[in-house]
Amino acid sequence: MRNPFALKTEVLSTEMHLLLALLAAENGEDLPVRRPELFRGMDWESFIELAMHHRVYPNLYPKLKNLGKDVVPSRVISCLYNYYSRNTFQMLHLSGEMEFIGGELERKNIRALFLKGPVIAKDLYGDISLRTSCDLDLLIPLTELDAAESLLAGLGYVKDDYIHTVLNDWKWRHHHTTFTHPNKGIKVELHWRLNPAPSGEPDFEELWSRRRISDLTRQPISYLGQEDLFLFLVSHGARHGWSRLRWLLDIKQLLLQQPDAGQLTALLRKYHYYHVGGQALALAGGLLDAEIAGGLRSMECAPKSRAMAQQAMFYLERMINLHSIPVPEDVASYHKRHQFALLAPIQKFKFILSFLFPYPEDAETLPLPKNLHFLYFPLRPFLWAWRKTVGVQK
Q: Does the predicted model carry a pTM greater than 0.90?
């Protein structure tokens, strides 16, 4: 396995080392011969658990199924096959719904860019069965959000009203709202931003001008251009600590398409994701043997990029699920520090400045008529101090 950047992987489990080796290999058939030590003393139950946690079992199953039961127990192959088959049906189900929703949006003249799901599986892997997805994510202009929400409601989707807001802070503190169809069992995330503040990112018109059209369905489906997709994937993966290897595998697959290094570097610099992109390259190259083009080497080799890549190993050394609430206190504390370290100086300034803007908790602590909400600006320090005194954190 080529290792351009020597990440410290000594504390990773035997099962994780095998998982990484399989993801790095083109087909894995010669792995038992080249690296037989990886298969010795294997806890296959832990291996399956890791494969499920990192959402990479669709990629692993085709590589393991032909190795023989003397290398991989038949029960392991059977288990992975069941998950692989189930995921294939899920992706077909999502593909049909994606085409349906895309058609309905087009009929209402609502522009939409599908961010993930089957369209990305087809683009990056050439086969929707090789990537998992549990929902559909699409980006629309903020001005068309109300119309898109009404359309989804008319199609039977139910909105999860989890966003509490004051003075319209939802527009930048949040970046999507969630809808679920009670009968179809499908979740749709309706984005008006790629990421929550203080991220910098291209506006919708810029993204739309570089869009691509997928040939996955009969109904034309628009999705992000190559360089924009890279920016979105690295910003999303970094925001979640690269705690699932599937996100790094996406980066590896995208690099195989050889995006324009000059355009990509300029885009990441413009929106303050240069070192976040470098972190992704260092991790994908160091762990998954991803091919880093010469034009991207300086980004991957930057000291900050590599330092942040090593810091992200914290998440891979443990089986961390940031969506499982409550997050352990030590993990939450580390994640908060790591996320702040990822920010560019201008983003750090905006992040600190955002604490001066009222929070919904301020309105809950001291309810005021809407026409007096501007008073939360001078009152915020006092309301924050009061909540700290009575033990409410914000």
A: yes
